[in-house]
Specification:
binds S-adenosylmethionine; 2 domains; alpha/beta; globular; Chemotaxis Receptor Methyltransferase Cher, domain 1; seven-stranded mixed sheet; Rossmann fold; 289 residues; single chain
Length: 289
């Protein structure tokens, strides 16, 4: 059981909670919520302690209190990005939640094929598997000549994840969900020191625009979208934050545009103006359908 240690914190409590004192945990909770929309539930002290403890050691600092001071002093925002990296998971995979890619292939893309131009946005793209899957699926479904009409934006708050995404380098094993023909067409194999790794071919990488973005910001500068993927991101947000974000997405969607969220998320208890299509799929009402 965890006890509030009141004045400055007893060593025992800090150790029991993975090195985080209750007062520090509360500070991390409110920073995570106010800046990133993250809801860190009480009970996560040990996890937070373990993850931030790693960062404390990497930076050669004394303890978590020192680390929080360091985060506040770093006006570049880089350490804040490190903090969120430590608090969230970047787990992702190619063709994750295949139902969405089937829907893209069978319904969404055929409906966009006649357009001069349209935008797809992977919001919370992590290390890039999601936007690259969208790109490959679109190329396969519509063919190369029609691919030019699609603009593909991929954003994440994590600079580390975005760097990996734009480099497009993955261990071969991560491609196990992809057909052989896709592996050949979209990736080059590493040799020498890069043996066992693959890289998305440069001409395909160039088709994705990667950008750092905190989804807590005002999103009115973001482009109008035919499709927004925001999957397994809102899982960390509380209901009011989810509601605000879904409202912002709805405002960025074209009439008839699609919002795809993670299957474990659902918008139960979240007010919005989108139509429910099927689990984890919503659509903006209106023309263009
Ligand atoms: C579990 S990954 C999901 C990746 C991908 N969408 C998928 O479903 O496989 C969640 C991503 O959300 C990002 N994220 C969390 N909070 C965010 C925020 N406030 N703004 C932007 N991205 C955020 C994390 O950095 C992480 O890369």
């Amino acid at each position: 059981m965890l006890h509030d240690d009141g004045l400055g914190g007893s060593q025992a409590t800090a150790v029991a909670s993975g090195g985080v004192r209750p007062s520090e945990f509360r500070e991390i909770q409110s920073m995570a919520h106010d800046i990133f929309g993250l809801e860190l539930k009480t009970g996560k002290e040990a996890l937070v302690g373990a993850r931030l403890g790693k960062r404390v050691r990497e930076l050669g600092l004394k303890d978590i209190s020192d680390y929080l001071g360091h985060v506040k002093q770093d006006h570049s925002g880089l350490e804040l990005a490190g903090l969120i990296d430590a608090l969230t998971t970047n787990f992702t995979s190619f063709l994750r939640e295949p139902v969405h890619f089937k829907l893209l292939r069978d319904r969404i893309l055929p409906g966009l094929a006649g357009r001069q131009t349209y935008q797809i946005w992977s919001a919370g793209c992590s290390t890039g598997e999601e936007p690259y899957s969208i790109l490959f699926e679109t190329a396969e479904t519509l063919g190369d000549t029609k691919l030019g009409a699609m603009k593909l934006l991929a954003t994440d708050i994590s600079t580390r994840a975005l760097k990996a995404a734009s480099e497009g380098i993955f261990p071969v094993a991560r491609l196990k969900e992809l057909p052989d023909s896709w592996r050949k067409r979209y990736f080059q194999r590493g040799t020498g020191q890069q043996e066992g790794m693959v890289r998305v071919r440069p001409e395909w990488r160039a088709r994705v625009q990667f950008e750092r973005l905190n989804l807590m910001e005002d999103l009115s500068r973001m482009p109008r979208c035919a499709v927004i993927f925001c999957r397994n991101v809102m899982i960390y947000f509380d209901k009011p934050t989810q509601e605000r974000l879904v409202g912002q997405f709805a405002a960025r969607l074209d009439p008839g545009g699609w919002l795809l969220i993670g299957h474990s998320e659902g918008l139960m208890g979240v007010r919005h103006d989108l139509e429910y299509v099927m689990p984890a799929v919503y659509r903006k009402p209106g023309a263009g359908r």
